[in-house]
Amino acid sequence: MYVEYFGLKEEPFNLAPDPRFFYLAEGHKEALARLQFAMEMRKGLVVLTGEVGSGKSSIIQSFMANLKPDQHVALIVNPKIIGSKLVQNVCREFGIELDFSQMSKSDILNLLYEFILKKTFYHQNFSVIIDDAHELTAEQLDDVLLFTKIETSTQQLLQVFLVGLPDLLEKLKVPQFLPIYQRIQILYYLKPFSYSDTQNYIYYRLSKAGLSQTDLFKADAVQRIYQLSSGFPRTITIIASNALLYGYLNGLKKIDHQAINLATDETLQKMMNSKPAGEPIQLGEKFPPQFIEGPPVYRRKRRWLKWTLIGMALIVSFLLLNIIALYLISYFELF
């Protein structure tokens, strides 16, 4: 709709992980460099964490797009779905197609070890990347530990990259998984964008989409986007897209902070502003309790009052019955 209106060739703020639109802020450059270094130097276990929408998956996509011919990656994007078949899925990602149903896990791991060892002789490099690694189960984390032990006396044969929310580190610190935590050789936390990164990100994507002008988003609009998004790329993308749609529908040629405010749903703004920096809001997230007003709370209070009154009535009835009983007993004793 607004693509032609603003002189663009394509949608600049699409959530699809298109490598052409991946903007490398300083933090993203460092994260990507660490992943590449870890693979080339066979560093074993690497952990990359960041909040929702911070760009972790985009870094993975960029990393995958720049693999060399001798570098092979088994990418696991949803460990929750895989369940107990993590090892089998890694084998298949490396091109090992067998009927694993009749094989024990130790047999499959030995097969994987022999496969990688043989390929390493020809200078091939193998890595496993697990996205959403904070969702790994205890059984899957045991498999991760076994992956890190695929090595010789002189080098690591299989690199493991765990990518997920900061909760992942807390999970690895519990006694059960300390053997994994102690094997981490590279650990990196992906920080949100700075204001400068936010500005560069917006105009980088507009430029890639074919925009020639450099002031479509005014400085106060960029500042407002930065405030609402806390510097998280995914939220920046959503807000900027909504702003362009609002501008198109209202005949605007420039986007200022008022357009950002009007384009962003009021409730969404409240939810964004209610979160501390570093906690981006995601579309589809349930309303937090402080924004659920009126009837639910009132009904709870009314039910509490009803049962209190019933309880008091029962107590009073019990006391009255006892008084009547005592009176009757005294009355009949007189006769």
State the order of secondary-structure elements, H for helix, E for strand: HHEHEHHHEHEHHEHHHHHH
* Tally of discrete structural domains: 2
CATH-defined fold name of the largest domain: Rossmann fold
Largest sheet geometry: 5 strands, parallel
Task: Summarize model confidence as the mean pLDDT.
Answer: 83
Rg over C-alpha atoms, rounded to the nearest angstrom: 30 Å
The global form is globular
Number of helices: 15
Could you list the spans in which at least 5 consecutive residues all have pLDDT below 50? 276-306, 331-335
Oligomer: single chain
CATH evolutionary superfamily of the largest domain: P-loop containing nucleotide triphosphate hydrolases
Numbering strands along the chain, what is their spatial order in the largest sheet? 2-3-4-1-5
First and last CA, distance: 100 Å
User: What's the CATH architecture name of the largest domain?
Assistant: 3-Layer(aba) Sandwich
Strand element count: 5
CATH classification class of the largest domain: Alpha Beta
β content, as a range? 5-15%
What features would you describe in this structure?
With 335 residues, the chain is α/β, with parallel strands linked by helices. It has two domains: 2-12 and 193-285, Helicase, Ruva Protein, domain 3 (Orthogonal Bundle); 26-190, P-loop containing nucleotide triphosphate hydrolases (Rossmann fold). It is 53% helix and 10% strand. It has helices spanning 2-5, 26-40, 56-65, 79-82, 86-93, 105-120, 138-148, 167-172, 178-181, 195-208, 219-229, 233-249, 257-263, 266-274, 295-334; strands spanning 45-50, 71-76, 125-130, 158-164, 184-190. β3, α7 (138-148) and β4 form a beta-alpha-beta unit. α11 (219-229) crosses α13. The longest helix is centred in the last third of the chain and has 40 residues, at 295-334. It starts with a helix and ends with a helix. The model is unreliable at 276-306 and 331-335 (pLDDT under 50).
